[in-house]
Write a structure and sequence with these properties.
The chain is mostly helical. The chain is built from 22 helices and six strands.
Length: 526
């Protein structure tokens, strides 16, 4: 130490380094960038620092040890009255870093409880997006989706749901957090959530008190249970039989607070249109999954999924837009008693059933796992459905519809025996005296036979395609089937809950059955 001209104590850079515990080169560098300024230099050009400079270096070192960068340190030292703000900003940065580290820790802890393959998948999913990127993505999605819509309660509910992991997350919460980021990034969720928000804005649906929320839950439980019963019984959503289910659900919906228009008080086209709009907005699979993931992250029980039931009911409403509308259309359709089938409908049915039976007998059990043109169905699933179709239509003709559902195992241990038994019973029922003219609702018995004929013909095409066999089955019957199929199925909704997918194209000179299959939603390969 020495005293300068003003008798102030000053120190050399080496002495300052020893006092502050900083290397000389650090003191020199900090001097060069303005963290501290020497009060002067010796005749030989060496830097000298006073008491204020030493104090400044002590504080600078403390801030550095806390993790601040040089820019933040210089700002804090130059404006010491702003030190609390600098410290607060640093606290926020540290908290963000801690959140990131906790997230990585949670993922790695979860990895240790998984197999190598599962752990690698989990780490890969986490590495695709940093925690901050994932959190920002979800937050931006929540705010951008609502944009200018006047839905304060909806907005508050979304933003309050949270987008981060709890401090000590479970494996399920880690997986949910990763999936949430992927769901938002996928792009499918945004338009679906926007449609729901727009519906909410149009109908002025505000916050719900506990009584209303409980009423909505009870209503949802009731209609989903009714739909599940119909689905287990094999009732197609786009069939006349679905009209009764729709009527029951509309009757429960009308007096509830889910019906926002008091003027709509009876089952009719307007009530069904309103309910369809409501279901279309609310029963979006991506939105449903979003809410389920938020429940998991919040430690709340995730509600059971109702997307499948919602699709079924939406399709049933569209196929039955007013009470009795489907029956009325079929009555007009079935008023024509002409028989377009070669040799008559019963002979055509027998030929198709025999042809499909030959394909069933040619299917070895080792082919059961093969995919088929029916989405998500294996060959085994298709064989089971072929047996079920014979059971359901044959039982209807006998006057003894089956008591089990279409989801039961109808093949047993011998798929050939199961098919032949069901086929024989259906054939026996169809050959009863007077069967073709007996009334079955709006249709005659001939139409029941025709229905099974078409089912076997098209699913026979599916089976032949899956097995790599010739799919040009019964060409003359297939040519007769095309206008019949267009007439019966042309007006039905082509949705996920319906019996048939959207129509596809087929080459102009393709076999007739290819055109039938394409109209019923099959993709035709070369």
């Amino acid at each position: 130490m020495r005293r300068d001209d003003a008798s102030r104590p000053t120190w050399s850079i080496g002495a300052v380094a020893r006092q502050t515990g900083l290397p000389v080169k650090v003191v020199r560098h900090w001097s060069d960038v303005g963290v501290v300024t020497p009060v002067g230099r010796t005749a030989g050009g060496y830097r000298r620092y006073d008491t204020a400079g030493v104090a400044r270096l002590h504080l600078a070192r403390t801030l550095r040890d806390l993790g601040l960068g040089l820019g933040e340190i210089r700002a804090a030292l130059d404006h010491q009255d702003g030190l609390p703000e600098v410290a607060a900003a640093h606290v926020e940065a540290l908290e963000a870093q801690i959140r990131r580290l906790r997230t990585h820790q949670a993922v790695l802890r979860t990895v240790t409880r998984r197999t190598t393959h599962e752990g690698l998948d989990l780490m890969t999913r986490n590495a695709r997006m940093s925690p901050d990127e994932r959190r920002k993505l979800v937050h931006d999605f929540l705010t951008d989706t609502l944009d200018d819509l006047e839905v304060p309660h909806f907005r508050e509910g979304l933003l309050a749901a949270g987008t981060g992991l709890p401090e000590d997350p479970t494996d399920e919460q880690v997986a949910a957090w990763l999936e949430l980021g992927e769901l938002v990034a996928d792009g499918e969720l945004r338009p679906a959530m926007r449609r729901l928000a727009e519906y909410t804005a149009r109908h002025g649906r505000g916050g719900q008190d506990s009584a209303v929320a409980e009423e909505m839950r009870a209503l949802t439980d009731a209609w989903t249970a009714r739909v599940r019963t119909a689905m287990r019984a094999g009732t197609a959503a786009d069939s006349p039989a679905a009209d009764e289910v729709v009527a029951d659900i509309v009757a429960a919906w009308l007096p509830s607070r889910a019906n926002t228009d008091p003027a709509v008080a009876v089952d009719g086209a307007e009530a069904r249109e309103r309910l369809t709009e409501q279901l279309t907005a609310a029963a979006e699979p991506a939105v449903e999954r979003f809410w389920q993931l938020l429940c998991v992250l919040g430690g709340r029980p995730a509600p059971a999924g109702i997307a499948e039931e919602g699709q079924w009911l939406t399709t049933a409403l569209r196929a039955n837009p007013a009470p009795g509308a489907h029956d009325a259309r079929l009555e007009a359709l079935y008023a024509d008693d002409t028989d377009p089938w070669p040799g008559g409908v019963l002979d055509a049915f027998t030929r198709v059933q025999d042809t499909v039976g030959a394909l069933v007998r040619a299917t070895a059990p080792d082919r059961f796992g093969l995919p088929t043109p029916c989405e998500d169905w294996t060959v085994r699933d298709l064989l089971d459905h072929l047996v079920w179709e014979n059971i359901i239509w044959g039982g209807l003709a006998h006057g003894t519809p089956p008591t089990d559902g279409h989801t039961e195992n109808h093949l047993g241990d011998d798929h050939v025996a199961a098919f032949e038994a069901a086929a024989a019973r259906a054939r026996e029922a169809f050959r009863q005296p007077g069967m073709l003219d007996r009334p079955f609702g709006p249709a005659r018995g001939r139409r029941v036979v025709e229905q099974l004929l078409v089912e076997l013909l098209v699913h026979g095409w599916d089976l032949a395609t899956a097995l790599g066999h010739d799919r040009d089955l019964e060409p003359d019957i297939a040519r007769a089937a095309l206008p019949v199929v267009r007439e019966i199925y042309g007006g039905l909704p082509r949705t996920a809950g319906g019996s048939i997918a959207s129509a596809q194209s087929a080459p102009e000179h393709a076999p007739a059955l290819d055109h039938v299959a394409a109209f019923l939603g099959r993709r035709i390969s070369d």
